[in-house]
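User: Here's a chain of 181 residues. Predict its fold as tokens.
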Amino acid sequence: MTVQPVRLFGDPVLRTPALEVVNFDKELRTLVSDLMDTMHAQGGAGLAAPQIGVGMRVFTYNCDGVEGHLVNPVWTAVGDDQQEGPEGCLSIPGLHWDCVRAKDVVARGWNMHGEPVEIQGSDLLARAIQHETDHLDGVLFLDRLDEATRKRAMAEIRTADWFTGAMPTIKQSPHPLFGAP
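Assistant: Prediction complete.
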């Protein structure tokens, strides 16, 4: 449908827990489509609704040839194995740090039509499910980093062009301008 602007670190919507979806309607299907289009355009492994300014519990994913979406997701770890590896975020563009996550997870939720869905993921898909569900809870992966890495990450963010405003991005509104230029 439409590629939406991605909200960047510092935007309060990224720290606000999202609301549970109760209406499985055309608006939800449009949101899922916008999330997919935006995720593909940005080259992400996943994208949560708050990252495009919508405070609803929905995310999309595209990892290792497995693509889909989850509405009102809940995940649990399968076993005790963990993975540590580089993790990034479309809301913190161009930066990555090692983050510890569960290696294998199972996620349950619904699709955009209100039908139950269960996804089992390992490695990258497991990481994406955990990362995107964190977004729905107002948690950023920076919160999952050890103290030393988090300090280094914050220092790198403070000097990033997108954070300092040194390279402004001009975005066109997706809304009609009603005759205004």
